[in-house]
């Protein structure tokens, strides 16, 4: 009888364990240790397609241990740990347990991760992106200090971006269905993607990941979003192919028109601003560190030359609508925003490769100048006026 009772208890215990395991099978766990962060708040955030949501937070104890448990996403998704302004990005695609070991001082760069091969790959991609960002920032400083020429600056910036893409392509083409591949596609510099949606070489990377995601996760919002972006890109590229226009009646135009909403939501066309004016077209992003200084320079130009016929048509590629509207609401010139942000077809048609980008239309509506040096902007504007 005693033997039967013992067996019964063992079976019941096993059942309770299995029930508990099944009950928690829809969760994933993020845990680890952060040294040197006693008393600091660390946050767990979900990184969506267009927003970031805080899921939980923890005040780190002297030992630095932490643990978060959240419901597993329906489809593979992206998350990050945030300590002050430092971020660790990672991905979740199952009911896994991911472990991190980090130091508060080098939280975003020198951490180790276990339990997720995709998250290890994301670390390598992030470090490559940071290297490119630092290289480009250094080149920009040298260029602003007139230590390097325009040609050298452009060549080295493209080389830094290509160095990132070389790393990213290894993950994209080796496992295009992975979260690491998706993550690699959407890394940015100054608000613009490293992989250009309207570049014939880069769009192959988008196509590889879009096809794999559509096959593996056809109902995922990320799959649909990426697939639509890729189709849109291919449509634009196909439209740029040589066409025989010999039998088509043509009408010459001097610039590509832009038609976008302003801060009040009213659509403002460039063609309605341009007649009889010298128009400075500016593609920008308010969320960049250089934007305040640029807007101050534009403000000085506008004040000085507006009465002589200067207008400014400023196109924002900011992803954050409210941030842009708050910054643009008090500016005296025309400010519009492209909701496609870094996927802007307008920016693509103007061949905008980096921000800020500036173009000048003369009083007849002819696109006469692409400004290469912001420091010579006033000279360029005066020449057209």
CATH topology of the largest domain: Glutaredoxin
Radius of gyration: 26 Å
What are the secondary-structure elements, in order, as H or E? HEEEEEEEEHHHEEHHEEHEHEHEHEEH
Largest sheet: 5 strands, mixed
Treating each run of at least 4 consecutive H or I residues as one helix, how many helices?
11
Strand percent estimate: 15-25%
Helicity level, as a percent range? 40-55%
User: How would you classify the helix and strand content by structural class?
Assistant: alpha+beta
Give the low-pLDDT segments: 1-6, 8-24, 248-253
Q: How widely separated are the two ends?
A: 105 Å
What is the CATH first-level class name of the largest domain? Alpha Beta
Q: How many strands?
A: 17
Q: How many domains is the backbone divided into?
A: 3
- Bulk shape: globular
CATH superfamily of the largest domain: Glutaredoxin
Major β-sheet strand ordering: 15-14-13-16-17
Mean pLDDT: 85
């Amino acid at each position: 009888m005693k033997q039967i009772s013992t067996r019964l208890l063992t079976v019941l215990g096993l059942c309770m364990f299995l029930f508990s395991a099944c009950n928690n099978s829809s969760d994933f766990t993020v845990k680890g240790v952060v040294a040197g962060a006693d008393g600091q708040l660390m946050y767990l955030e979900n990184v969506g397609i267009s927003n970031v949501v805080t899921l939980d937070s923890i005040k780190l104890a002297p030992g630095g241990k932490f643990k978060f448990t959240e419901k597993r996403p329906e489809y593979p998704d992206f998350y990050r740990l945030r300590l002050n302004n430092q971020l660790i990005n990672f991905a979740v695609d199952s009911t896994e347990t991911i472990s991190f070991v980090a130091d508060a001082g080098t939280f975003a760069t020198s951490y180790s991760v276990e339990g997720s091969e995709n998250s290890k790959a994301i670390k390598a991609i992030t470090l490559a992106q940071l290297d490119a960002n630092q290289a480009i920032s250094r080149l920009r400083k040298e260029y602003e200090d007139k230590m390097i020429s325009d040609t050298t600056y452009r060549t080295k910036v493209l080389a830094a971006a290509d160095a990132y893409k070389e790393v990213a392509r290894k993950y994209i083409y080796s496992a295009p269905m992975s979260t690491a591949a998706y993550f690699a596609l959407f890394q940015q510099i100054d608000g613009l993607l490293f992989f250009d949606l309207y570049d014939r070489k880069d769009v192959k990377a988008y196509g590889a990941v879009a096809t794999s995601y559509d096959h593996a996760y056809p109902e995922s919002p990320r799959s649909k979003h990426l697939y639509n972006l890729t189709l849109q890109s291919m449509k634009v590229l196909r439209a740029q192919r040589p066409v025989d226009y010999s039998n088509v009646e043509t009408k010459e135009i001097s610039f590509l028109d832009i038609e976008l909403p302003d801060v009040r939501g009213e659509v403002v066309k460039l063609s309605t601003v341009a007649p009889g004016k010298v128009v400075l077209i500016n593609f920008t992003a308010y969320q960049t560190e250089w934007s305040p200084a640029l807007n101050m320079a534009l403000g000085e130009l506008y004040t000085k030359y507006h009465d002589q016929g200067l207008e400014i048509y400023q196109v924002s590629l900011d992803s954050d609508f409210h941030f842009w509207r708050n910054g643009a609401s008090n500016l005296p010139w025309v400010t519009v925003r492209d909701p496609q942000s870094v996927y802007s077809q307008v920016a693509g048609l103007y061949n905008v490769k980096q921000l800020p980008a500036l173009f000048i239309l003369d009083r007849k509506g002819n696109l006469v100048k692409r400004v290469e040096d912001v420091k010579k902007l006033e000279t360029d504007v005066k020449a057209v006026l």
